[in-house]
Design a protein that fits this description.
Helices cover about 40% and strands about 20% of the residues. By secondary structure, the protein is of the alpha/beta class. A six-stranded parallel β-sheet has the order 9-16-15-12-11-10. The protein has a four-stranded antiparallel β-sheet with strand order 6-8-4-17, with helices on one face. Helix 4 (about 135-170) packs across helix 5. The chain is elongated and about 75 Å long. One of its GO terms (biological process) is NAD+ biosynthetic process. Pfam families: QRPTase_C, QRPTase_N. InterPro entries: Aldolase_TIM, NadC, NadC/ModD, Nicotinate_pribotase-like_C, Quinolinate_PRibosylTase_N_sf, Quinolinate_PRibosylTrfase_C, Quinolinate_PRibosylTrfase_N. Pathway: Cofactor biosynthesis; NAD(+) biosynthesis; nicotinate D-ribonucleotide from quinolinate: step 1/1.
């Protein structure tokens, strides 16, 4: 079942305060853009067969409103008063969540008008105003915290992803399934905006043979053989990744693949980056594993991946580097929405946050 939601796409360049309107059609499988060019939404969200993005927005607003609504707004704000509120960056970082923020404001009040001078993926500096929302004051304030919660989290993820992706080259940076419950698509969308790539969305779209599967199956070979048989029986074609923790396990995968037709497409090289006492890492085991595989499969380094180590890991020849920290340890980017921007900037400078 589809839902039609009017939004203003984040396509405007710095210095151009314009409001643009379009239609976003959200289905259970993906968000489609029948009337907006793909360039209008800087980065489309990833696809998911059951994820209800509008439902997540409704849930976030509902937990805020409870069974009474915003009692403070009802007590202090005249129902027909209109205001302009400005988005203000209070630290440097990569902006993410513009399209989602517009959905939040529209859910609260479709008459609200949202305008941007920046787009998802743009780098913003502390003290910069990068967007504004105009309309009923009550609606703006009710939507404010939920909109900012999404944008701050997404921008924090995008900021770290951008730094990691730049440092990891020529390897590609991936997140994992270590996302906030209920925010899987939102977190992974932010990774895309930050310049990373998505790992599997969930348990359904890729076979990933992990250590526990291997232990239960009785070894690497048995686990891969079982997956190959299952996919053949079910007539399924999908990517298959197998985790290895030692060079012997890498060799076991390669030996099996040399003797049998297999669906394996990627080998994870887990914890083959060894921390050293001086804070550096030893990547010699990882390099040896990559040489053994010799391009026969994609490779993915996992474990001990930080902003400080990712560049060295990326030079080993691995295809991908995965980091759970992109989403499970995210530091939200400090962003506010202010009606009295002059006072907000004054206070921000006093506290060194603007």
């Amino acid at each position: 079942m589809s839902m039609i939601i009017s939004v203003s796409p984040p396509c405007l360049r710095p210095g151009l305060w314009k409001a643009s309107r379009g239609t976003v059609r959200m289905s259970a499988a993906e968000i489609k853009l029948p009337t907006i060019s793909l360039s209008s939404m800087t980065v489309k969200p990833p696809s998911h067969p059951t994820y209800d993005l509008k439902g997540i927005i409704k849930l976030a607003l509902s937990e805020d409103a409870g069974d009474r609504g915003d009692v403070t707004c009802m007590a202090t704000i005249p129902s027909e008063m209109e205001v302009e509120a400005y988005f203000l960056a209070k630290e440097d970082g990569v902006l993410a969540g513009i399209a989602l923020v517009e959905l939040v404001f529209h859910e609260v009040d479709p008459s609200l008008k949202v305008e941007w001078s920046q787009a998802d993926g743009d780098y913003v500096h502390k003290g910069v105003q990068f967007g504004k929302v105009t309309g009923r004051a009550y609606s703006v304030v009710v939507a404010e915290r939920v909109a900012l919660n999404f944008m701050q989290r997404m921008s924090g993820i995008a900021t770290l992803t951008k730094a990691m992706a730049d440092a990891a080259r020529p390897a590609c940076i991936l997140e994992t399934r270590k996302t906030a419950p209920g925010l899987r698509l939102v977190d992974k969308w932010a990774v895309l905006i930050g310049g990373g790539k998505n790992h599997r969305m969930g348990l359904f779209d890729m076979v990933m043979i992990k250590d526990n599967h291997i232990s239960i199956a009785g070894g690497v070979t048995n686990a891969i053989r079982s997956v190959d048989m299952y996919l053949q029986q079910k007539n399924l074609k999908m990517e298959v990744e197998v985790e290895t923790r030692t060079l012997d396990e890498v060799l076991e995968v390669l030996q099996y693949a040399s003797q049998s037709e297999t669906s394996v497409t990627r080998i994870m090289l887990d914890n083959m980056v060894v921390p050293l006492p001086d804070g550096d890492v030893d990547v010699s085991m990882l390099e040896e594993a990559v040489k053994l595989i010799n391009g026969k499969f994609e490779t993915e380094a996992s474990g001990n991946v930080t902003l400080e180590t990712v560049h060295k890991i990326g030079q080993t020849g691995v295809t991908y580097i995965s980091s759970g920290a992109l989403t499970h340890s995210v530091k939200a980017l400090d962003i506010s929405l202010k009606i009295d921007t002059e006072l907000a900037l004054k206070v921000g400078r006093r506290t060194k946050r603007a």
